[in-house]
Amino acid sequence: MIEALQFDFMQNALAAGLLASLIGGIMGTLVIVNRIVFLSGGIAHASYGGIGLAFFFGWPFLAGTLGFAVAAALLMATISLRARHRSDTIIGVVWAVGMAIGIVLLDLTPGYNVDLMSYLFGSILTVPASDLWIMAALSVLICGFVFLFYPDILALSYDEEFAMIRGTPVRLIYYLMIVLLAVTIVMVIQVVGLILIIALLTIPPYIVEKYARSLFQMMVGASLIGSFFTVVGLYLSYRFDLTSGAAIILVAGVGFFAVTLIEQISVRRQRLETWHKFEREEQGHVS
Predict the structure, then answer these.
(1) Which of 32, 42, 110, 210 could pair covalently with 205 via S-S, beta carbons 3.0-4.6 A apart?
(2) Separation between Cα atoms, residue 205 and residue 219, nearest integer Å
């Protein structure tokens, strides 16, 4: 991996991966604790419409995709607040329509020759230095939002009724969180792609959730684990000539199943120890 870093594109890829892991860890934690994984998937797939808009009108990728993703996110957030019993259905419709718009616009784009796979599975090796500055600025924005509104975010995430009683602007915080989630998704699309984005947002926070004692610890732990997955995935993609986004997610998937297996073994061992202890106590009473 060290020799690979002599190339500019690998340096940019590592920087993009670490930035995406930092923000993915923070926002992914909020996705997990607020149970909005399906909403995140809807935003991710609907944002494909923004990719189509960007290429059809010749806009910069981030500008077109961000604008469409934020609009779709606000629509989905409004639906989830006002029609909770039908929100999954309507979000699914917006999800599908957004992707359809993107595909049709790409079909209609004159001279379209962009590699579709790069947006479905990521193109971290082609992230330009200019996008890194934008990602860094957005990272500072998201970190600042969490720092300033941390008590309100904490209350909203674990007890919405209590948050409303204490005067927290629940709807405002919720909308801001969804908008920043859309921003995060657009950033991470360049790293792991549209199809794999939810895995990077959810696997690291899920692994950390059982061991973290606070929301802040969960965010930090998820960011660190996401960074580890990204570095290892990048190394494997360079070493074995694999698609970088898929390699990163495979590493994350191995980590997920390994932790799950260890937890199951630990639970089974505790049950056996409890059973053996119960048997010894019963034998003591009999004797």
Answers:
(1) 32
(2) 7
Q: Do 102 and 50 meet the contact criterion of CB atoms below 8 Å apart?
A: yes
According to the model, what pLDDT value does residue 284 have? 63
Q: The whole model's pTM is what?
A: 0.85
How far is it, in rounded angstroms, from Cα 205 to Cα 27? Answer: 9
Q: Mark 2-24 as b/e (b = at least 16 C-beta within 10 Å).
A: eebeeeeebebbbbbbbbbbbbb
Per-residue pLDDT tens digits for 125-141: 778 888 788 888 888 99
Which among 91, 82, 116, 102 is positioned nearest to 41, based on CA atoms?
A: 91
Q: What would the two tokens of residue 224 be?
A: 């660190």
Residue 104 has a CB neighbour count (10 Å cut-off) of 13
**Hey, what are 112's tokens?**
């379209």
Specify the residue for token string 């794999």. Answer: 196
3-state secondary structure 192-251: HCCCCHHHHHHHHHHHHHCCCCCHHHHHHHHHHHHHHHHHHHHHHHHHHCCCHHHHHHHH
Q: Specify the CATH number of the domain 3-286.
A: 1.10.3470.10
**Hey, what are 22's tokens?**
């930092």
CB-hemisphere CA count at 13 Å for 126? 15
Report how far residue 193's alpha carbon sits from residue 127's, in angstroms, rounded to the nearest whole number.
12
Longest CA–CA separation in the chain, Å: 88
> What is the spatial distance between Cα 272 and Cα 33, in angstroms, rounded to a whole number?
31
CA distance 271 to 126: 50
